[in-house]
Amino acid sequence: MKKYDAVIIGFGKGGKTLAGTLAASGKKTALIEKDNKMYGGTCINVGCIPSKSFVTSAAFSAKLDSSFEEKAKLYKEAVAKKTKLTDALRNKNYHKVADLENADVYNGEASFVDSRHVKVVLQDETIELEAEQIFINTGASPFIPPIEGLSDSSHVYISETMLSLDELPRQLVIIGGGYIGMEFASIYRNFGSEVTVIQDGGVFLPREDRDIADAVAASLKERGVKLLLSTKINSVHDSDQKAVVSVETPDGPKEISADAVLIATGRRPNVKGLNLDAAGVELTPRNAVKTDEFLQTTAPGIYAMGDVVGGLQFTYISLDDFRIVKSQILGDKERTINNRGAVPYSVFLDPPFSRVGLSETEAVQQGYEIKITKLPAAAIPKANVLGQTTGLLKAVIDAKTNQILGAHLFCAESHEMINLIKLAMDAHLSYTVLRDTIYTHPTMSEAFNDLFNI
Ligand SMILES: Cc1cc2nc3c(=O)[nH]c(=O)nc-3n(C[C@H](O)[C@H](O)[C@H](O)COP(=O)(O)OP(=O)(O)OC[C@H]3O[C@@H](n4cnc5c(N)ncnc54)[C@H](O)[C@@H]3O)c2cc1C
Ligand SMILES: NC(=O)c1ccc[n+]([C@@H]2O[C@H](COP(=O)([O-])OP(=O)(O)OC[C@H]3O[C@@H](n4cnc5c(N)ncnc54)[C@H](O)[C@@H]3O)[C@@H](O)[C@H]2O)c1
């Protein structure tokens, strides 16, 4: 049996960063990854990076006045470009840990023997590792809803397999109107597919500010994306080289033919097979690893980071979880999930939609007296320079303190702009600081001079 100071299960953002940090601090560290195509985790291999490579390629394709066949050729090139990028990043990520003096990378599936021992099933043998501290960073996997015929269809994809689909689908049906559903709808529409998004709920982007959700829906519809809300899927079956999706819409039953059906109905924590019971690691009612604010599980010495914890599923949350764990193991123990500040996010549509903080409704529900400010993207000089005048910017301000409670930016480059607002919120700045600051010109950020001019 090999002994380590730390064993990390899963090569995700938190895990790999922690492995590098612990090894550099002199701790003997093992990092276990079950899939040798996943060094670096979901983000660089099958998540953020490949999907954003597609966003860029698709935006280029959308500008061309070409036939579907020509677009399909461009799409094939985009898949190859994406694969080259992810292969290079995977290799770089592997060596960043494996080449460290104090770190070993194991390619095998890990499970707990007890709270100090982990079994690793390697290709040719099974080994056991011992450590005083063990870290779970196993990520999440797509939830597949129980729809009749889904598992028998040869046209059904999850985001991961869709990103490697070489043929551009003429017709794409997306089940689920969340982050992945929206981003893939925007991407494939720009590549040239006919896209239909099917959502069970009746409200489009239910957690988002209504003004912005309406603006996003209008933009997608204008671009030709069909949105079917309050729609139940009865079955999926293959017929004549296509999938036929039978649905029950508020207007009655409907059959939609598709070359590809993407399942984007949420991702669930990867806890199966870890034998967590043996280690005394408990789960939440939603089957995520239960942790306290320091990411300590119910078993002393065992921590969890990233999607497996069941909170917000973003790469930068997994990275921040690493910061919290580092603060526990090597630092002042001060950082927790409760003091990491406002968490922004961006959905990479065309234009992207970005948010931080409260919506108007949430602010009112929480009893704030608020001021609202809005600005159409078309009023921003840089949006006109870019030829991207679609969109709306909105901010929710605490009328008593003048601090920003929330910002909702649906406009070009909003994914960059939102980080500035997060900083202002964390620093408890008055909105007037953003209003009166000098910005370079012409930029999208200078829109804050006008947005906050109330
Ligand atoms: C299509 C898509 C697009 C996304 N876009 C964005 C985006 O733009 N921005 C953003 O911030 N987030 C995005 N996300 C979410 C983001 O990718 C995840 O939140 C993030 O990668 C989670 O990282 P993690 O550290 O929790 O684990 P992961 O990166 O998922 O890593 C977990 C690793 O553990 C391994 N593993 C699991 N079980 C075991 C075991 N028993 N033994 C050994 N190894 C095991 C897995 O193979 C995997 O490599 C996207 C996700 C998807 C699917
Ligand atoms: N830009 C980003 O940061 C980014 C991009 C992609 C994914 N992600 C992460 O990945 C996670 C997973 O994304 P996701 O889109 O799969 O999940 P999600 O939770 O965002 O959305 C799932 C959607 O599927 C719908 N749904 C569920 N079951 C359904 C059914 N049977 N029929 C029709 N609709 C159904 C839900 O109502 C919801 O709209 C997200 O939580 C997000 O954190 C982030």
From TrEMBL:
Residues 4-316 form the FAD/NAD(P)-binding domain. One of its GO terms (molecular function) is NAD(P)H dehydrogenase (quinone) activity. FAD binds at residues 52, 307. The keyword Acetylation does not apply. NAD(+) binds at residues 176-183, 266. Keywords: Disulfide bond, FAD, Flavoprotein, NAD, NADP, Nucleotide-binding, Oxidoreductase, Redox-active center. Belongs to the class-I pyridine nucleotide-disulfide oxidoreductase family. This is Dihydrolipoamide dehydrogenase.
